[in-house]
Amino acid sequence: MSESQLWDDVDDYFITHLARDDDALQAALRDSDAAELPRVHVSAPQGKLLQLLAEIQGARHILEIGTLGGYSTIWLARALPGDGRLVSLEYSARHAEVAVRNIARAGLDRQVEVRVGPALESLPKLADENPPPFDLVFIDADKVNNPHYLEWALKLTRTGSLIVVDNVVRGGRVADPAETADDVRGTRAAIELIGSHPRLSGTAIQTVGSKGYDGFALARVRA
């Protein structure tokens, strides 16, 4: 058995017992595939982890940067109380159209708002609205802008908020000093910002599974 097949099998076991996709989540993946969206969504165990993190936070307001087909959005929004709100920012209008349908099918359209356009244009507009501080921010968009997204996350959160940055391992390239690709440089800048910023305490975890070899960073906002 190959290493990747073993990872898939273990993920399947965890999904069966801990993070089973229901009809709405399965339909979101089917519709995303039918629309030929990139297959870069989180896995079911990762989605369940996001939901649990939001629940542990007692999150009432969630910000997601990078919607894709809305799969992770559904997991996160299910952690919200009835009057909670999730704002998701998506660059592609085509991706957002698929996501909005998926979110509505899951019965979450009253709590979730998908905003279309470059996130670095949407974030200042969101800040101008003076929303309540976000309790959790999930960053899963173009990696080159990760440090900029992180800086905006700090402006839009409060002491005790949690920031999650996805895909920080880049197949191990993040630790290769000879690697200068934009996605790696953006990821390194975000990791180094978490490590050096006086208002952030964080770590990063390597993962394996159906999404291959990757990982995520967690940062808690301090006073």
Would you kindly provide a written description of the structure presented here, covering whatever features stand out?
The protein has 223 residues and is α/β, with parallel strands linked by helices. Helices cover 43% and strands 22% of the residues. The protein is built from eight helices and seven strands; from the N terminus they run H-H-H-E-H-E-H-E-H-E-H-E-H-E-E. The chain has a seven-stranded mixed beta sheet with strand order 3-2-1-4-5-7-6, sandwiched between helices. The protein is globular, with a radius of gyration of 17 Å. The N and C termini lie far apart (49 Å).
State the main characteristics.
single chain; 223 residues; alpha/beta; 8 helices
State the helical fraction.
Answer: 40-55%
Structural class: alpha/beta
How many strands, what sense, and barrel or not for the largest sheet? 7 strands, mixed
Helix count, per DSSP? 8
Principal-axis shape: globular
Strand order of the largest sheet: 3-2-1-4-5-7-6
How much is the radius of gyration in Å?
Answer: 17 Å
- Strand percent estimate: 15-25%
Order of helices and strands: HHHEHEHEHEHEHEE
Q: Could you tell me the number of beta strands? A: 7
The mean pLDDT is 96
Terminal CA distance? 49 Å
Low-confidence segments, given as residue ranges, are none
Work out the oligomeric state of the chains in this entry. single chain
